[in-house]
Amino acid sequence: MNKVIISTDIRTALTQEISELPHDKLFILCDETTRRLCFPLVQSLPCFTGVEPITIPATDTHKTLETLAHVWTELSTAGGTRHSLLVNLGGGMVTDLGGFAASTFKRGIPYINIPTTLLSMVDASVGGKTGINFNGLKNEIGVFNAPHAVILDTEFLRTLDHPNILSGYAEMLKHGLISNEKNFAELLNFDLGNIDYHQLSSMVATSVAIKERIVQADPLEHGIRKALNLGHTAGHAFESFCLQSPTPVLHGYAVAWGLICELYLSCTKAGFPTDRMRQTVQFIKENYGTLPITCDDYPLLYQLMTHDKKNTAGTINFTLLGNLGDIHINQTATREEIYQMLDFFREGL
Ligand SMILES: NC(=O)c1ccc[n+]([C@@H]2O[C@H](COP(=O)([O-])OP(=O)(O)OC[C@H]3O[C@@H](n4cnc5c(N)ncnc54)[C@H](O)[C@@H]3O)[C@@H](O)[C@H]2O)c1
Ligand SMILES: [Zn+2]
Predict the structure, then answer these.
(1) Contacts of 254 (CB under 8 A, 6+ apart)
(2) Out of 35, 63, 236, 276, which one is annotated catalytic?
(3) Which of 54, 88, 259, 325 is the most buried (most CB within 10 A)?
(4) Residues 122-144: pLDDT tens digits?
């Protein structure tokens, strides 16, 4: 299980965690951006004296076997042993790939995650999923293996661009929807245009605790962990749809649009309150805009939904809500219902 530390002083928190783990050699993994913007916040710690970060190219397109092999090579040639320790400093790309590198090097060495994007704070760095993309398939190769600790410090978010803030915030909205009224109301009232980092830190802590609770109940995703798929059946279809266009979108934008669709289905099929749904749709449209699809795109979007890896035996699997926190997993919908959902997405409110 993850040990999640909410930090307001990354240097002290990291020193403490590192001192708890006996090791012969310390490694730190960054991407080119976090090497430049995030590593300086911890660089002068005594434990990093003489330590040059292993640095890999940024973003998901580099979450590949080639990059992984580079990390293994660096660990190996610098004299890493099974008693070494790896710190991953970056977004989900770095924590996924670094977690997998640590899990496989010398049959597994301990690692600590320091997520530096909002998405990786509330989602990618907790839950124990590690891995890489392979043969054009996302997260095709990987293992479940939790880090020794995850240190969350919203200080890192000050350099993160607004689209990536919004991308992570969509997962927080999802966590709010599957938890309760109080958490969700705070999310809808938060001013994303003028971020209060102190308040965001406590909201991140709440959000991660929601994910942790669900992962703990079902670590290998046989049942209730599917709650975390809310917004993702339609969301993944939008994400793949945009990949085929000249303008790909960040994951969280697709999830936010997926939430619009799946809250609509939740209203029509599971009794989710309509006013609550409309309020959420309005918040999402104001902050994320919309995706300009037409009726001609429905067959492709439908096909993308049926190919989602969460499905069994050709039916589309949704997670829906009867209300905030009232989770209905393994729901399905007909083609007609999905087309109506897409009508709502285009014209809703
Ligand atoms: N393991 C899981 O459970 C899980 C869950 C969700 C997503 N993921 C994975 O996470 C990845 C996406 O994560 P992400 O959204 O964090 O993307 P990312 O790691 O690619 O980061 C996005 C961009 O932000 C930059 N960046 C990172 N921290 C920064 C900072 N503090 N200031 C400025 N720029 C910064 C990065 O260099 C990169 O260019 C995907 O590979 C996805 O598959 C994994
Ligand atoms: Zn997601």
Answers:
(1) 235, 236, 238, 239, 242
(2) 236
(3) 88
(4) 999 888 999 999 998 889 999 99
